[in-house]
Amino acid sequence: MVAEGASPTPVLEIKDLVKEFPGRKKGEEVLAVDHVNITVPDEERGEFVALLGPSGCGKSTILSMVGGLMEPTSGEVLTLGKPVQGSNPDTVTVQQAYTCYPWLTALGNVEFGLNIQGKGKGEAKDIASEYLRKVGLGDRLGAFPRELSGGMQQRIAIARALAIKAKIVLMDEPFGALDAQTRAEMQQLLLQLWTEEKQSIFFVTHDITEAVLLAERVIVFSSRPAKIVHDLRVPFGRPRPQELVSDPHFVEICQSLLSLLKQSPSGGQVRVSL
Description:
Mean pLDDT: 90
Order of helices and strands: EEEHEEEHHHEHEHEEH
Radius of gyration: 19 Å
Low-confidence stretches: none
Number of strands: 10
Distance between the termini: 43 Å
Number of helices: 7
Strand order of the largest sheet: 6-7-8-3-9-10
Strand content: 15-25%
Shape: globular
């Protein structure tokens, strides 16, 4: 509960974040992330933030530091006002690769995180069943990952992430391995779930169209080392149907972002999938 007149604690603060990695030569350091500052202010309503930039620019490195899987060289990351030190319990991650446990059913995969949280067997089953229904797999609770398509496996990963109700969902190109039709379906599913759940989402992509379609805010990075070159508030309301991508204003925004990215020295692919 926030005292009247007081500002709520930001759900995420990234302050002057720098990350260097050892170079090939002894004593050499390679700069990957260069003094990045981001604030996601409102825990209550949740914000969908896309990190957009060329492949290999350092977006996933930032995600790893938010999740506590990697320590910054300097600067800091705070979630709900607390410095991240080690694995961050306020976050959960959905990777590009299908991360289902092959020895568990769809239900077992979603129950796994709930069991770690200490949920009782019955409660975990009820919650897992609910979230699998939300992602359209209510009739496949007993199926093993080998019996499901890649898109279905990614639905399980999203259900597992949302079910534990972490404050921040970190998504690292979660649809990058999917075909175009499945990708479009998953984008709409994610928008629907985010509207219902209102968790903050930090979504890494190098697809401009995907970033503008999904996010409320698109933070644009240069090629490595990652620097913020633009922070765009997306001017479209909700819902956002797939047909929006052919809207002239939508196309104009995508083209302007592409021009911004082209001004930075090329560090990898950037995609516009109109």
